[in-house]
Amino acid sequence: MRRLLALSLLLAGGIVGSASAAGSPPSNTGLPGISGTARDGSMLTASKGNWTGAPTSYAYQWERCDTAGGSCGSIAGANSFRYTVGSADVDHTLRVVVTATNANGNGSATSRPTGTVSASGHAPVATRLPNLSGTTQQNSTLTADRGDWTGAQPISFDFSWQRCDTAGNNCVTFIVHSHVKAYTLTAGDIGHEMRLEVTARNSHGSTSVFSNPTAVVTGATPPATTISITRVSLPDQLVIDKVSFSPNVIVSRTAPVTARFHVEDAKGLSVQGALVYALGLPYGWTFNAPEQPTDSTGWATITLQPTRAMPLRRGDLVLFVRARKPGENLLAGVSTRRLVQVGIG
Q1: Which residues of 25-38 are buried (b: 16+ CB within 10 A; e: fewer)?
Q2: Biggest alpha carbon distance in the chain?
Q3: From CA 51, how far away is CA 53, in angstroms rounded?
Q4: Which of 53, 76, 132, 289 is the most exposed place for a label (fewest CB within 10 A)?
């Protein structure tokens, strides 16, 4: 009887003990671990460790610590069992906190810290030199190309602009370590060659290289004063704006008269290549003269020869003057007509 009672008490104690164990939150019996290389750009993997209480889930939180493994702080967003080491981790240690959860609660355990994270890669190296593109003329814009680079990412860049002598030497920086990628040439740049210095920086250091100097900067092109007749088209029209005669008074029937006519377009540009015709009135007072083209300054010169019919009394010779575009109708297109006069006697 006593033996049966003892056996009953023993069994009851075991059942109570098992129920007590099953009702506890997880408890760590072996710390989490970290595998992988503690180097910028590498991936680390956390093991969950060993637990009692039959955890149903695990959560992870990576922390960044000082080189002694202390002063740790949580890394935002780093809550997977894998973690990619970043440049912010260089010269720090890392550890992971694992939280195990079951129906009765949770428990946490922290891994030992990694070794100090080392940097990977190298300082920036230029594989293609920077350059400046654009016309080297006052009021034109030069655009910077930083070139091509290798090295640990991320790499930041800045630009310094220089004026050099006509041999590309004795350069002076006038814009220092800026983010200016385009520069409009000024009067102060005339007579200089331009050069660009690009400085690249990453976690390993900085490197500076120079572009080849540009051609010598020249002054601005003066505004155009002449236009070809081929570029004049409707609704624009020709204008006979100036007239001169030599002599400016006709006193002889035997001496020729040199008449000059200037042609421009509606914008005031002298027109080259327009055909100009002049006819003396009354008809018969001068011999007919052929059409003449305007020169590079917009002037056409026509020689008029008086006839015996021209009276030498005080009066005027009237001229019908026409300017036209070659190939167009005499009285259409961009042509224009004007009456002018020169004194007689």
Answers
A1: bbebeeebebebeb
A2: 172
A3: 7
A4: 76
* CA–CA distance, 94 with 66 (Å, rounded to integer): 8
Any idea which residue has 């400046």 for tokens? 132
The list of the chain residues with pLDDT below 70 reads 1-22
- Count of other CB atoms within 10 angstroms of residue 154: 9
22-110 fold: Immunoglobulin-like (2.60.40)
Pairwise CA distance, residues 163 & 189, whole Å: 7
Query: Which CATH fold would you assign to the domain 125-210?
Result: Immunoglobulin-like (2.60.40)
Token output for 159: 């630009």
Backbone phi and psi for residue 14, each to the nearest 5 degrees, phi listed first? -65, -40
pTM for the structure as a whole? 0.45
**Are β-strands 336-344 and 249-250 bridged in parallel, bridged antiparallel, or unpaired?**
parallel
Separation of alpha carbons 110 and 313, rounded Å: 124
Query: Which sequence spans correspond to the domains of the chain?
Result: 22-110, 125-210, 226-344
Q: What is the pLDDT of residues 274-283, one digit of tens each?
A: 999 999 999 9
Q: In 3D, which of 312, 249, 321 has the Cα closest to residue 285?
A: 312
**DSSP assignment, residue 153?**
S
| Among candidate residues 292, 287, 324, 325, the one with its CA nearest the CA of residue 306 | 287
Whats the size of the chain, residue-wise? 345
List phi, psi (to 5°) of 18. -65, -40
Q: Provide the token pair at 201.
A: 């920086």
d(CA 205, CA 55): 47
Residue 20 CA: distances (Å) to CA of 13, 53, 148: 11, 11, 67
State the CATH architecture for 226-344: Sandwich (2.60)
Other beta carbons within 10 Å of 108: 14
Fold match, 22-110 / 125-210: yes
At residue 345, the pLDDT reads: 85
What's the rounded Cα separation, in Å, for the pair 106 and 24? 9
Provide the 3-class DSSP secondary structure of residue 118: strand
